[in-house]
């Protein structure tokens, strides 16, 4: 039975009011990656990093899923075969849209991580410098997101899914960040049909067999139908 593996990025949440990274006025236009999305940046200025993620956590808590999130959840429910969603997004809009078993390869805003003992727990809306781990008590709590230079989560599972994919779709991502940007090659090597759905061609558009350009809330429901 056909197995569909779907990779999503910030573009699928753009129409839900979640900023993207690289677009006009995107997150990286306001903040330097080095300062807020690296372990070194957190060590240097934890207050700046907590402020950056506290704001995004508050926005994500208010955000609602859009027609693209809902279409993927419907596909998961109605497709006779397996549909696996791997997201680079740290918001919970796929789950709010009804999707299940979503693999958050770059972590989740709604979770906190202890840098000392590795414990994870539901993050308070506002994390403060020196936030304590409820398990080891260390003042070592950080947002449970994957920063640059850190290993993304659940990579073994992801590579297994890619090797079994018969269809690989990439939605709302610029294809500039690895290892996610290389997933299309992994899937293509496994014989999958590959399709890019995005507002504009990504940095790896030439690796895809099919492309559909437009807003996620339009091209994703049309692709699912
Ligand atoms: C900048 C880049 C060159 N650097 C990297 O890729 C680095 C280094 C690197 C590793 N391998 C390499 C190989 C070559 C070069 C560099 C590297 N990668 C890492 O450090 C990664 C860790 C990277 C993760 C960093 N954390 C993020 N996020 C979490 C935090 C947070 O969220 O704050 S990355 C962050 O940016 C990434 C890209 O963002 P997108 O989601 O694509 O968003 P963007 O704004 O860029 O694009 C939006 C797109 O949507 C479209 N769009 C907009 N609106 C709409 C709309 N309405 N509808 C449809 N589409 C739309 C736009 O046209 C656009 O195309 C996402 O992954 C996102 O999670 N770790 C790692 O490699 O560990 C070792 C390893 C190696 C191999 C195998 C295993 C381990």
Number of structurally distinct domains: 2
Count of DSSP helices? 9
Strands in their spatial order, largest beta sheet: 3-2-1-7-8-9
Series of H and E elements: EHHHHHEHEEEEHEHEEH
Query: Proportion of β residues?
Result: 15-25%
InterPro entries: DHS-like_NAD/FAD-binding_dom (IPR029035), NAD-dep_sirtuin_deacylases (IPR050134), Sirtuin (IPR003000), Sirtuin_cat_small_dom_sf (IPR026591), Sirtuin_class_III (IPR027546), Ssirtuin_cat_dom (IPR026590)
EC number: 2.3.1.286
Keywords: Cytoplasm, Metal-binding, NAD, Transferase, Zinc
Enzyme class: transferase
Describe this structure in words.
It comes from Seohaeicola zhoushanensis. Its cofactor is Zn(2+). Its EC number is 2.3.1.286. It is a single chain. With 225 residues, the chain is α/β, with parallel strands linked by helices. The protein folds into two domains: 1-18 and 65-106 and 152-225, Rossmann fold (3-Layer(aba) Sandwich); 19-62 and 109-145, SIR2/SIRT2 'Small Domain' (2-Layer Sandwich), CATH 3.30.1600.10. 32% of the residues lie in helices and 19% in strands. It contains nine helices and nine strands. It has helices at 27-30, 33-36, 39-44, 46-62, 67-78, 93-96, 155-164, 183-189, 216-224; strands at residues 4-8, 83-87, 103-104, 107-114, 120-122, 141-145, 167-171, 193-198, 210-213. The strands form two sheets. A six-stranded parallel sheet has the order 3-2-1-7-8-9, sandwiched between helices. Helix 5 (67-78) packs parallel to helix 9 and helix 7 crosses helix 8 (183-189). The longest helix is centred in the first third of the chain and has 17 residues, at 46-62. The radius of gyration is 17 Å and the shape is globular. The protein binds ligand BV8. Residues 9-11, 14-15, 20-23, 26, 37, 88, 90, 106, 145-152, 155, 172-174, 176-180, 198-200, 202, 215-216 line the site of ligand BV8.
């Amino acid at each position: 039975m056909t197995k569909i593996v779907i990779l999503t990025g910030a573009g699928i949440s753009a129409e839900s009011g979640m900023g993207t990274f690289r677009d006009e006025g995107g997150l990286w236009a306001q903040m330097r990656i080095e300062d807020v999305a690296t372990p070194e940046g957190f060590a240097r200025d934890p207050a700046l990093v907590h402020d950056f993620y506290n704001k995004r956590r508050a926005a994500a808590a208010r955000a609602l899923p859009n027609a693209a999130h809902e279409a993927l959840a419907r596909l998961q429910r109605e497709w006779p075969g397996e549909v696996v969603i791997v997201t680079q997004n740290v918001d919970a809009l796929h789950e709010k849209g009804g999707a299940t078993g979503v693999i958050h390869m770059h972590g989740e805003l709604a979770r906190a991580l202890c840098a000392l003992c590795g414990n994870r727990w539901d993050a308070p809306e506002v994390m403060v410098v020196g936030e304590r781990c409820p398990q080891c008590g260390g003042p070592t709590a950080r947002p449970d997101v994957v920063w640059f230079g850190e290993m993304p989560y659940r990579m073994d599972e992801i590579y297994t899914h890619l090797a079994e994919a018969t269809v690989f779709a990439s939605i709302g991502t610029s294809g500039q960040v690895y290892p996610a940007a290389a997933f299309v090659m992994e899937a293509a090597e496994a014989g999958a049909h590959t399709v890019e759905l995005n507002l504009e061609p990504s940095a790896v558009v030439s690796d895809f067999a099919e492309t559909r350009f437009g807003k996620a809330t339009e091209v994703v429901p049309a692709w699912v139908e």
